[in-house]
Amino acid sequence: LRAARPDAILVLILPPNWAELERRLRHRGTDTDAAIKRRLAAAAAEVRDAADYDLVIVNDHLGEALETVREILAGGAPPARGRQVLDELLGSKAAGVKL
User: Fold this and answer.
1) Sequence-ordered list of residues with C-beta below 8 angstroms from that of 65, at least 6 positions apart, any chain
2) pTM score over 0.70
3) Average pLDDT, integer, range 79-99
4) HSE, side-chain direction, 13 A CA sphere, residue 40
5) Residue 43: closest CA among 61, 25, 30, 70
């Protein structure tokens, strides 16, 4: 994406924690266990590659996350909390969180 659109601002949207991400995926009832495991693994890879993103947003409340996206599009800065949650997710993964 960066090669095609070097001016793009890449945004990583995170769950508040791993348990909530898994709960959301299971609550939807649309994926098999195998698909959920693949999606959790993909999410872990995205978190590991977070340095590739310009901004990080935590989606702990959909309305607030959407408002943050709107603020970013309008030229505002995202809340610093995104990097804190990213550090926590990376720490959890490093500590052996089962995905």
Assistant:
1) 13, 57, 58, 59
2) no
3) 57
4) 22
5) 25
